[in-house]
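Hi everyone, sorry if this is the wrong subforum. Our group has a chain we'd like a structural model of before ordering constructs, and none of us has done structure prediction before. Sequence below.
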Amino acid sequence: MASRGCINSPDMFCYVCGLFTDKSHRKTLMPLMKKAYELYFDSKVDSGKSWAPQFICLTCSCNLRGWIRKAKKNNHMSFGVPMIWREPTNHTTDCYFCMTKVSGFTFKTRSSLNYPDVSSVSKPVAHDPVTCPVPEPPAENTVDEEQQQETGVSSVSDSDSDYQPEEEIHLINSAELCDLVRDLALTKGQAELLGSRLKEFHLLAPGTATATFRDRHKDLVQYFDMSDSICFCKDVDGLMSSLRVDHSVEEWRLFIDSSKTSLKAVLLHNGNTYASIPVGYSAHMKEPYENMSLLLQKIRYQEYNWSICGDLKVVAILTGLQSGYTKYCCFICEWDSRDKVHHYMKKSWVIRNKMKPGCKNIAHEPLVHRDKILMPPLHIKLGLMKNFVKRLDNDSAAFHHLRDKFPELSEAKVKEGAVSDEHGERFHQDISVMESRYQGRWSAAMLADYCWTLHRDVPDAQYRRTSMAKRFKPTSST
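Answer:
Right subforum, don't worry. Here is the predicted structure as tokens:
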């Protein structure tokens, strides 16, 4: 066997049936599964081999579990001889994993894959009433406790069928209830309904209030104000302190962008460790120079002087450049957009020394110093890809591959390199739920309500299944 790895990882396939299995449908070979496998196929699991899968697919797991537990449904496998794995001799003609093309297939369409016939595997053999009948399940299906401990697997499971209530019930206190509401992203009404049901089921600790969620934004709304069609944060330091976060200007950057529905200004933590903090929002404004100037004035940018990131259009407005397809469209150098002869030949262009209005497409006084501008790598990559697509031949295999990958886009849009990164930016994803919840009734309460969902009352709590939402950790002084 060659020393290099396979094109497809062996763990992308089921150990029992050999079919392609994506990550969301894989199950670990638990002791119960190994015992069921041994009893059903009269063969032991040969685990620990690098050239064999170490996981089982959801279908085989349910069938083996149902068989050993004598369930009414999914109570046997569709084959009597499982997939037999052997070490392949090479990756070219004898590797089951390298020769299976799984690109574009899912768990539902895996049966239509073309699985190769190679000597390193023996494919499953279907049941036969005479030669290979369905075996009878054992009378007992318990797993040896010592074996369970040796594998290092906890007896606690997320499976519904394995759940057994503990004798001592944990009562949820106010802080834990608030964190649960944040993790579930519940509205105020949904939060009160959840608290009421938990209280009815006697699962809340004494003194836990459930009617306070309707005013959950009250403590944070004092840091926001609204004027000139802009909802903005008037005290960034106070908001950060209330969220129990140290506000160091060097650790945060200001992100400005507009979507189809709103203009947003957000503080992003360098490294994206913490959640995004909104400092400006308007549902009726776009990105002209006057609006940008008004927004920076409202959030007192000159006082904090954060670094700024955004798309190239926002960068051009902030640096006072003339909009549209201009000759000198770069705020760093005097790159000539109309000198197409030297675009891919000339590497060094003259650096801009002056940002004076009326000079080389400078239309306004710059709103921020250009040293504070962070170049947007995402938009640069998208621009390069857009130009690449524009140069493709309409009859080429690469162009038809893009058409197949994006069937809902017309040929004209594919040719124009139509790519949207709006939902790829973090805050557009974070605030989208809150925008749909308020639907035009945007106010200081909306931003305060969003900020309430960011911090945690019990940040060090450990749960079996954790939320993937961004959160804040308390500072060392708290």
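For your construct planning: The radius of gyration is 30 Å. The CA atoms of residues 171 and 202 lie 8 Å apart.
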